[in-house]
Design brief:
alpha+beta; Beta-Lactamase; Transcription Regulator spoIIAA; 3 domains; five-stranded antiparallel β-sheet; 14 helices; 15 strands
């Protein structure tokens, strides 16, 4: 063979090598060749992208450098060298990031050289997406909140366990059925009207509804919203349902407790504003302080009459030393209280009238003929202790 033929042969070999390099580098798979010891002898451009090492950095290193766990790497290397398909396992990039790859291997022999040709696909993103989908499905199915999706015509596309339970059905009994199959006609009609309002408003909407089926005595809060794709096309009407029965019951109990506290406080204030003090057998004193409005005047008369009956009083002394202002309705209330006491067999004595109050009573023309008036509480008590006076 002359020199010209040698040159032609070399050029042909170069073309073949270039063509093979182009084929390997244009592949969508990472192509990796191993020698019988597991050393990497060939590495294409996709392998650089997947694993992060350049060909110059990785060639000559052992396959196990690509495996996340050394022990598993040795076992998988042995299988690869036998040319066995490996499936998926965890690999590691140059930067330490873990990835999931799908491997397949085939033994090849060329020019008395044994090698293992590996094709590798990075499935990390697909695996992550599948894991995310599994997670989301588990979240939907096991959520303590009822979750559903239905078509605009009311036919259900999805219902999780909690939503189905809340309507007394299973998910299979809900999907592919519409509201009028699942709910009482009046409830179904209400739901359909709400769907129409929702689609017209095109915003999330909330409402409260009574339960149906086995939970008809319960209360549910719902959030419904239209689900649209990137182009704005309606995909479904979606909803989230929360059982708020215990919350409403707690609120009702809290309201009832608050009302009891208010009533108790009102009673305590009434007692404080109309104190009735027994000073001797059959003698009661009611010292009044501050302003007296119409409501308090009524409370004074009620407390005085109840005290006469419960204490079997023969004398009731009303001391108004601490009262700054007396108007017509207050004066009339005192007169009515005296009249009531007399009807119950007790004498009423009014003490503590200051000059301003006396002038007001005169100007108002109030008839205090039913009341005994004395200047001081002491004189009133002394009179009461002497016993009732006949003819008075």
């Amino acid at each position: 063979m002359d020199h010209e033929e040698d040159d032609d042969l070399r050029r042909a070999l170069v073309r073949l090598e270039r063509r093979e390099r182009h084929r390997r580098d244009s592949s969508s798979l990472a192509l990796i060749d191993l020698d019988p010891s597991g050393a990497i002898v060939a590495w294409n451009r996709k392998a650089e992208q997947v694993f992060g090492w350049s060909e110059a950095e990785i060639v000559g290193q052992n396959y196990v450098v690509l495996v996340a766990e050394t022990q598993r790497g040795e076992a998988s290397l042995a299988a690869l060298l036998r040319g066995e398909h490996q499936g998926r396992h965890a690999n590691v990039r140059k930067d330490g990031q873990r990835i999931v790859c799908e491997w397949s291997a085939a033994q090849q022999r060329e020019d008395d050289i044994d090698e293992v040709h590996c094709e590798v696909r990075d499935v990390s993103e697909a695996e992550t997406q599948r894991q995310r989908q599994r997670f989301m499905q588990a979240l939907l199915d096991r959520s303590p909140l009822g979750i559903f999706a239905k078509r605009p015509d009311g036919v259900y596309l999805y219902a999780n366990e909690e939503f189905s339970r809340s309507v007394g059905r299973t998910p299979d009994d809900v999907v592919d059925h519409d509201d009028f199959v699942i709910f009482h006609p009046e409830i179904a009609a209400s739901l359909r009207r709400h769907d129409v309002e929702l689609l017209a408003a095109d915003v999330p909407m909330t409402r409260e509804d009574a339960g149906v089926g086995p939970d008809s005595g319960r209360t549910y809060w719902s959030l419904k919203f239209p689900l649209r794709d990137d182009a704005g096309e309606l995909l479904a009407i979606c909803g989230i349902i929360n059982d708020i029965t215990s919350l409403r019951q707690s609120e009702q109990a809290q309201t009832a407790l608050q009302q009891r506290v208010i009533d108790s406080q009102r009673e305590a204030l009434a007692e404080l504003s109309t104190p009735l003090i027994p000073v001797a057998e059959g003698v009661l004193v009611m010292p009044l302080i501050g302003d007296i409005d119409r409501q308090r005047a009524e409370q004074i008369m009620e407390a005085l009459l109840n005290g006469v009956v419960s204490q079997r009083a023969r004398t009731v002394i009303v001391d108004i030393t601490g009262v700054d202002t007396v108007d017509t309705h207050v004066a009339q209330a005192l007169v009515r209280a005296a009249q009531g006491a007399r009807l119950l067999g007790a004498e009423a004595i009014l003490t503590g009238i200051n000059p301003q109050v006396a002038q007001t009573l005169v100007e108002l023309g109030v008839d205090l003929g039913q009341l005994v008036t004395l200047g001081s509480l002491r004189s009133a008590i002394a009179r009461a202790l002497q016993g009732p006076r006949r003819g008075k």
